Amino acid sequence: MKKPLCTGFENPLGMSRRSFLNQVGMGLGGLALGSMMNPLQALTNNGPALSGTHFPAKAKRVIYLFQSGGPSQMDLFDYKPRLNTEHGQELPDSIRKGQRLTGMSTSQASFPLAGSPFEFKQHGESGAWFSETLPHMASIADKLCFVKSMYTEAINHGPAVTMMLSGSQIPGRPTAGSWLSYGLGSSNKNLPSYVVLTPKVAKGQPLTSRYWGSGFLPGRHDGVSFRADKDAVLYLNNPEGVSRSSRSKTINHLKEFHEYQVSQQSDPVLEAQIEQYEMAFRMQASVPEVSDISGESKATLELYGEGVTEPGTYAANCLLARRLAERDVPFVQVFHTGWDAHGNCPEKVRTNSKKTDQASTALIKDLESRGMLDDTLVIWGGEFGRTNYCQGKMTKTNFGRDHHPRCFTTWMAGGGIKPGYTHGVTDEYCYNLDQGGVHVHDFHATMMHLLGIDHERLTYKYQGRHFRLTDVHGHVVKEVLA
């Protein structure tokens, strides 16, 4: 390798501080230093952890349409006529069973049942139930697989979202997209392996970067958040007076210095930094290209609906998710906020359904028309559901619903999932599970299985323990597999 003109990092002994510590005190200094450093130091290369999938994958990529705030399952998908029959009556103690409530409901003296104000109908050959607020989604009933028996231990938003996305209520664990990036990497070297699309106007519970963080995995597995703006990623454009060729020369010279330093003393952190510089340079061309929808047909834009040309709307993000999937980005996470409904629940269900129904449906239809649905797993769901009883004051036309982690609904489509199928049953009050409970870890195990990964075998050693997305348990839900 050609030696750089300037090597200011050389020293008379020809050793780095790490080498010095390793040779002093029988290496104890190095051990002490190593315990403080990021686990990335233990890596010897920047490739994926797995040489390939554990078994043939049904899905090559995931698009996760995350509905933050907790959509009300009994106002959207889980039809419960008994709630309407007993509207205003007290939730039976035999159903509640003294189970935990949030701090927002514990002071209530009464828990009156609240039936859904929306009309429900069955659709498609599968006979799936949809409320009148989801007419577009109802049109693809036979392409969807419902899991109506999801459950979690988390009862408040922050821990519940963190649990749903990382398998733990405690912040700091790698999120699902990071695990996939770590395990399998990406065939597209010009775009991040994990992209996050957030709304321009976020209502309700705040979104925080830990929801797409890589935790203790190497930082290159972080989700990259695209901004709801003409510049999807900040600082990609060159400053005035700096050309792309000039920037390329700068990157090449910097790489030359870094490679020389690595040749003198191996440093995985530095190797990762080189890779990140190069990725950023390639993204200067790839991100503007993927964000430019001017080439999309009028029919496609109309399919996604109102707001599709405005960056940061749910419709625009769903279309951008499809464009990223076309370019083989393995994990795309689209956030929609505002489903939290402690008060004025009926109006919030109407509003959020209107914002998400058409675009979610369009994404499924668009992927299918391009021959991509079969190997793209699309997921729609939130962090928990809502209570069957009213939180706060109930009127003839209005009520609120509190958080409910014991049963909620998620649907999936494509990517090896059984279409036109409903898994799991809740009781007549939509309060407890009757059949087929699916824990968050089971959900993650199933998602990983569809991607060709044995969830028990993709692990990372950190602080003396081998961690995985499904923590210490989790089973593949075989009934939902095609």
Structural topology:
Layout (H helix, E strand, L loop, with lengths): L16 H7 L4 H9 L24 E7 L13 H5 L7 H4 L23 E4 L4 E4 L3 H4 L5 E8 L5 H10 L9 H9 L9 E4 L26 E3 L17 H21 L3 H24 L6 H7 L9 H13 L4 E6 L8 H25 L6 E6 L3 E2 L16 E2 L3 E6 L7 E3 L1 E2 L6 E3 L2 E2 H11 L9 E3 L2 E3 L15
Parallel strand pairs: 1-7, 1-8, 4-12, 4-15, 5-6, 5-7
Antiparallel strand pairs: 2-3, 4-11, 8-11, 9-10, 13-14, 16-17
Helix pairs in contact: 1-2, 8-9, 11-12
Mean pLDDT: 88
How much is the radius of gyration in Å? 25 Å
Count helical runs.
13
Query: What would you call the structural class?
Result: alpha/beta
Low-confidence stretches: 4-10, 24-44
Q: Report strand %.
A: 5-15%
The CATH topology annotation reads as Alkaline Phosphatase, subunit A
Give the helix proportion (percent range).
25-40%
CATH architecture: 3-Layer(aba) Sandwich
Q: Domain count, please report it.
A: 1
- Helix and strand string, N-terminal first? HHEHHEEHEHHEEHHHHEHEEEEEEEEHEE
CATH class: Alpha Beta
Major sheet attributes? 9 strands, mixed
Number of strands: 17
Taking the alpha carbons of the first and last residues, their distance comes to 53 Å
Determine the oligomeric state from the structure.
single chain
Q: What best-fitting shape do the alpha-carbon axes yield?
A: globular
